[in-house]
Amino acid sequence: MSGLSAILIANIALALLAALILWQGSQHAEQLSIVRRQFSKLSSTDPVTDLPNRATLHDRLTDALNSEGPDSALMVIELDGFKVVNDTLGHETGDELLRAVAMRMSSCLHQSDLLARVGNSEFAALIMREDAESRATQTAQSIDKAMDAPFRIRDDVINIKASIGIAPTTKGDSPATEILRRADVAMFAAKSEKQDSIRVYSPAMDEVLQLRRTINSELDLALMNNQLQLVYQPLVCARTGKVMSAEALMRWPGKPGQAGSPGVFIPIAEESGLITKLGAWALDQAMLEITRQKTIPIAVNVSPIQFRVDGFASSVEAALERHGIDPSFLHIEITEGVLISHTGEAQRTMKRLREMGVQVLLDDFGTGYSSLSYLQQFEFDGLKIDRAFIQQLDIGPTGRQLLKSIIALGHSLNMKVVAEGVETEDQAAILQLLACDFLQGYALGRPDVADKLHSVTRPEELLGNLHRNGGWSAAS
Question: Residue 253: which domain range?
Fold first, then answer.
């Protein structure tokens, strides 16, 4: 081979080597660029829903606050009861639900709005349009309405609601972190307000939230220090006047003022999750009382949060065995709120409890939108008519006819019917004539310590004067 040929071959080899090095370099650069893009997406996007994450929302909100455009408004949207879905149905179902919720919420937003996932069960929407506060309220109403329809995830039908807080912004007023905090505060206000799932921030909400947190801390301390108490209200047979069972009601004797009312501290405990500990304590105390008196069953109210905890039925079974109690002496009262979300799990829990011999009653019947449909889906041992219907007895014959229909409906489904909130002799008389099975209320016995359970006014005593006067013909 000539020297010229060798040089040519060497040059070609060098050129090929250089080309290879350049190609590899470009490949590495491309791979590096891909990695950088992936990292950028991971750092700015929620991996479950593919929505922007909290950091991205914070940056966009900061930009909006510093821009020359119109003022914006921020919504924080909390999925009520999402943790229970994860705990009972699993994280895969929870993730699918989050994606479905994100799609449904996105359909309610304008193309210029930003929807982000900012927490485990929390979304946020940044409204960047003229008249942002009004637009945010309208969007929140659309989301609230959209959440009415249940979600079907695999074999489960899941009903889940949202609490929405809105924080309007004014340029130069507050930083993004403060706007986020205000929207959170408004969301917590909506969460605690049963009649309104959408609230707009006001400074007064800060004081209310702090008060609720203080009450919750003190309640937890009261539970640890054994400062809570159960009182018992009798349920009497409307026909014989005999005390047939009692309902256990929680009291906080050492807490003065409105904060010591169950109507105040129970909802606060439900919001914080403390209700699970309170409920377990109440169940244990009621079983101790059953063991002590061994005469009548005792009913315990179980909150939706406690009822949906994974293994609730097993914990009841273990407690019954620990106390050596016949399951028929324990009644559990649940409200419609227990059944609103993931009905399949609720049905399985109810079936397990009833198979043990524990009776399950639907409390506050008639106050929800779907009470009749739940009677078709679930097998209850009894239903308790809400006191609002009992008060209608004092108005006229329409209330009596409605009660007559409810009682007949319960009997047609082989359920015992309890009227709660019976406060007058006339109400007791009418309910007896309408064939209601049991009566409960101040007219028969106020909630008191267990030893006074049997010191009640019997229905025949209440009915004495009415019988002598010929009774209530309109009730029949």
Answer: 218-475
